[in-house]
Amino acid sequence: MSTTRSTLRTHWVALRAMLVLTLVLGVGYTAVVTGIGQFALPAQANGSLVRDADGAVVGSALIGQSFADAEGAALPEWFQPRPSAAGDGYDGGASSGSNYGPENADLVAAIGERQAAIGEADGAAPGEIPVDAVTASGSGLDPHISPAYARLQVARVAEARGLPETEVATLVERFVQGRDAGYLGDPTVNVLRLNLALAELVGD
Amino acid sequence: MEVLFAALQAATLALILALLYRPLGDYLARTYTSDRDWRVERGFYRLIGVDPRAEQSWPAYLRGVLAFSLVGLLLVYALQRAQAVLPYSLGLPAVPEGLAFNTAASFVANTNWQSYSPELTMGYTVQLAGLAVQNFVSAAVGIAVAIALVRGFARHGSPTIGNFWVDLVRGCLRVLLPLAIVGAVVLLAGGVVQNFAGFTEVQTLSGGSQQLPGGPVASQEVIKLLGTNGGGFFNANSAHPFENPTAWTNLFETVLMLAIPFALPRAFGRMVGSNKQGYAILAVMATLFVLSLVALSALEAAGRGTAPELAGGAMEGKETRFGIFGSTLFGTTSTLTSTGAVNSMHDSYTALGGMLPMLNMMLGEVAPGGVGSGLYGMLVLAVIAVFIAGLLVGRTPEYLGKKIGPREIKLASLYILVTPTLVLAGTALSFALPGVREDVESTSIWNPGIHGMSEVLYAFTSASNNNGSAFAGLTANTPWFNIALGVAMLLGRFVPIVLVLALAGSLAAQRKVPATAGTLPTHRPQFVGLLLGVTVIVTALTYFPVLTLGPLAEGLN
């Protein structure tokens, strides 16, 4: 009898502890962090939004977006991001990698097709195509490409826009971001920021 | 150059952890040995009706752990089932029974396996009132159990091992909450979002549209790592730029995962009255960590396999900003602790590279392991190691002045049998049970052939060791996996806790045995090597056969 009562009492203590901790750690803590974010760091807390010259939001600096037509075909006048496995591509509501294993035949075929498409569009041999251009990222929302892949696309973009190649090449170099602190991670180019500058360059 | 940058990044991490080791370890030791309560804590004890000075025997301590976890399980389950009527649910419906059970078990067991895609399943209220709270308290429970075991070594002739409610509250309020607030501000500065805006539709630059997600992410991200939980706010977990925006946040997130597990050996050393004992445990953990990190990094940088060789490298499932080493550093950290967060898709690692996260978990997550669970796992292995040493020289084994007798060695042996049993039985049943096998092969497995078997092995390894990472191609939201993995997570968490607390009670009751000339010193390199060997051999003997059926077969093919 006394064991039953003590077991019941322990659960009653546990329930009260869980409810108080939910208030403190669930509600209170989240509110404090939200308050700090919204008052002290609102730009980051609200998604690092990127605006065009007219002030319209065109996306987030941290979230990659698609530069393809409605059928999914790459638009040659924009720098292309990496392949994406998020939804139909860069779906911000469905972040995901492909999860294909290293021997998966579908992945091997997809890499081959991507190399062929890029080879045709950018006039590159398979060996010259950077690895990030033909592989999907972990999130499906990778905002970056490698500087090598950005440089590979210069001639195509310049031709599609009727711009001198040197001007586009200069723009790319301006958007090459080095490693954090000089040694963390890999060098990158933010595709949205680069394309936004490109659009402003020709003023369309 | 790549190797140099990688080495520099690893050195930075090591330096930060070295600087944290003493202050954080000492702070942990003080937190759990102080007899002074904060004013807010006294209010808390009055509210829940416990006397903070009342010491508990090990069964009473255990009843507290189990009752608290059961209540947590029911609450998280209820919140998910009631999601449709909760505020800030983003219009999402109630979570179905099987999935709700799996998720509740997963977060209470500090596993954070996710059979679901968060963006499409969990509203903000379930995330913050259910899941984030478990991120705190399941971590605090883990530390409490480890501290109870340390008290077993530190106390002599004592019938009690502490007070669970005090350890729980102090872990939450003195350790996790302050660190989480500081960490959240750092992540916010790096670009992690924190709002209640839901999805925002924007017009993209090329004229399309895109849904940008929002949510209270920073607050949850930091505790998911600090508490070695690992459940992502988003499906892509820490690969998602809103969870882990830059290369430096990536390094900071590895620090968050490792800070407490690597500082606990110091707290242990302090509490048993010999810092050298803490350094010995630290040396074993750090050696295993470095070996595993180097192996995974080398394998991914080499990029063997049909797809990586065709593409020119193993970047499938990896983010540009982290690169190969930022990915392998995070992956190693996450699977050698019990975090299970991912910043790159382990399913897409090279065949042998993908085996490393599995091996890390199979080691029992002791290098440095989850918050608390890593230390108690390593101390159990230390008990086994002194026993083996005792057999070799024909003496009664002792550890820290306590005799390792039949009762202690039985408890330790049972401990190391629990997770292998769950892993191997779960994997075998998935392919042996008629009906289940067809479902596993047709619905769940994503990659065909050998790699598909690895997905199932990974799932049971992750669940039973309370890690939570996945070969995520596996569709685990099926009746079989939801129930089987849910049971594996609960047994993999709480059966070892029962054994550890029983061991704590039995050690605390013993009087101190004076050290003699025949006592094996447990703070010297000799013992570090022995413990290292025991850890590796126990794992290798248990899992080698099943690894040859999965990643070894794929990688050596």
From TrEMBL, chain A:
It comes from the Bacteria. Its main location: membrane. The chain crosses the membrane at residues 12-32. InterPro entries: KdpC. One of its GO terms (molecular function) is ATP binding. Keywords: ATP-binding, Cell membrane, Ion transport, Membrane, Nucleotide-binding, Potassium, Potassium transport, Transmembrane, Transmembrane helix, Transport. It is a single-pass membrane protein. It holds the Pfam family KdpC. Part of the high-affinity ATP-driven potassium transport (or Kdp) system, which catalyzes the hydrolysis of ATP coupled with the electrogenic transport of potassium into the cytoplasm. This subunit acts as a catalytic chaperone that increases the ATP-binding affinity of the ATP-hydrolyzing subunit KdpB by the formation of a transient KdpB/KdpC/ATP ternary complex. Belongs to the KdpC family. The system is composed of three essential subunits: KdpA, KdpB and KdpC. This is Potassium-transporting ATPase KdpC subunit. It comes from Agromyces mediolanus (Corynebacterium mediolanum). The gene is kdpC.
UniProtKB/TrEMBL annotation, chain B:
InterPro entries: KdpA. It is a multi-pass membrane protein. The keyword Repeat does not apply. The chain crosses the membrane at residues 60-79, 86-108, 128-154, 175-197, 247-268, 280-302, 373-393, 414-433, 483-507, 527-547. One of its GO terms (molecular function) is potassium ion binding. NCBIfam families: kdpA (TIGR00680). This is Potassium-transporting ATPase potassium-binding subunit. The gene is kdpA.
